[in-house]
Please model this.
Amino acid sequence: MSKNSFLLGIISFSLVLGLSTACSTENAKQQQKVESQSSSQQQGEVPLESAVGYNYTRLRELLANQEWKEADEETAQAMLKVAGREEEGYFTIENIDNFPCEDLRIIDRLWVKYSNGKLGLSVQKEIYQERGGIWKKFGDTVGWREQGGWKSYEELNWKSPTAPNAPQGHLPVSWREATRGGWFFSRAETCKL
Model:
């Protein structure tokens, strides 16, 4: 074997070894990222990866601090922004039917987590279905109606919606004004909330 062939062999081996090490390092980084995500999910953290790039950090912080009214307002703003309906301030049936399941799940999981299962869209969907899909019966059950009339936004329970005597599914509520009914529950069903 000539000296040049020998050197070429060493260089080739070094390149292969370098590529192999780089690939191993990249694979290790990917594996570490997957394990980190899995670990945080096992610790009860809600993944905040929006289908449209919306940042749910503020909503998570408001809910973690039990700032219920602000969290409700943030939920409505988030939903309108995700649907591209901020300017209009309401949803059409088409917007609801196309609302990203990933985002609906994030919103729901945050509410459910920080209320210990008492609040959230999935909780509301279940109650709505149990009441036969009758909007007024649903409103009575979640505490949005009293003596046959709808409560104003300010009259709702903002101080202690997770108290033992507070009705299940009381919040979030601001989305109801943007939809005028239980349309989101069909989307929640489709998204398997």
Summary: Strands lie at 145-146, 149-150. Confidence is low (pLDDT under 50) at residues 2-42.
